[in-house]
Amino acid sequence: MTTHDLDPIARLLAERSCERLVLELVRRLDLGDPSTVCDLFTTDGIWEWPYDGRRIEGREALRAYFGSRPVDRLSRRMCTNILVTVDSPDTAAATTYFATYRVDGYTDGALIPPRLPANIGHYEDTFRKVDGVWLMATRTLALPFGGPTERLDAPSRY
Fold first, then answer.
1. pLDDT means per 10 residues in the chain (158 residues)?
2. Letter string b/e over residues 30-56, b meaning 16 or more CB atoms within 10 A of that residue's CB
3. Most buried residue, 27, 58, 141, 147, by CB count within 10 Å?
4. pTM of the prediction?
């Protein structure tokens, strides 16, 4: 079966399911429990950062990695231009542009003055449908603009 043979509604549902995975992953990192990001991946899922050689492979390794982020980290990711391409009834790929605003040393309730994003780039994702559920198989980060995470000196209120 080629992608041209896919029912248009099935293609649309696959595209939307994959797009929703991208958005749910960002919500969990920024507003939820980061250690649960792993549940959006296949059991052999991979997240990699080629620019510095990092590669996290498997759900448990992903849980440990994202669960270890600093508890005082404040982050917001702005994702756009999510383009999902369905390759088959059970596989798809996507490119998503992002900007990440992030600081460490955040105190709940504090208002942080505006700043430039810490990172700007795009994600290259692949997806697999497993037991009727779409999951992320791989995420590769392309980072042309990036820097260290700023640490706030002391809480300030505005």
1. 78 98 97 94 97 96 95 95 97 98 94 94 98 98 94 68
2. beeebbbbbebbbeebbbbbeeeeeeb
3. 141
4. 0.91
